[in-house]
Give the backbone structure.
Amino acid sequence: MMAQEVLLDCLGEACPVPLVKTEKKLTTLAVGDILVVQIDHSCAMKNIPEWARKEGHNVEIEEVDDGEWEVIIEKVK
Amino acid sequence: MDLKSNKFYQQWFKNAWTYVTGAILLSLFQIVTLVVTGKPWGVSSTLTNWGAWLYSAVGGQVDSWYYFSSERAQITLDAGFFNDAGSMRNLGIIFGALLATLLASQFKFKKIKSMKQVIAAILGGLLMGYGARVGLGCNIGALYSSIASLSVSGWVFAIFLFLGALVGSKLLTKFFM
């Protein structure tokens, strides 16, 4: 099966909602899948990547607009 | 040279400073605040004064209220907004935060996601405001400044702040997930 890419819209949501939503969403995905979390709350740009890296996943952050980011997480295990 | 890729721009304005840097700066400036104004750093009691001034501006009277009945409170209210160190500091916090987001080009008007968010924000604000007054301080005046002044009350505040946060996060995951 092909790895899938899933979008998680967390725009307009403050901490810790984006982080908890990301944790929950990631458990439903398979290894190799990509989760793209859309955020506009700057502290989520810190705590989501921190958590995901600690869990051992591959993480990249992209600034898509002023005050808007996509945290791209590749589920590794 | 492109400013956005400048190393110092990135370091000072774009990327978030570390918690340690923030902690050291807060510690230094709260000492400056105490020395210059003669009072420890606080935020929310100033907001209460703003409320009193607003209420007076529309013809209200707060002189007889227990909260504003002390001589010190009366002096602050009589001196007015522009002579109040706390008010100037709170304005500084607001404009400083705005300046920081603008310099990092991260300013954005965030859309309101749901009615639920609006109700939670209003309820949360009211509860925090009420709690800060009956608790004689918020997490700055009653927690941060108390602990910095070596007062036990700050640590007691911390314990109950933690318990409140536990309950709050349970409610948050129940209603917002």
Summary: The mean pLDDT of chain B is 93.
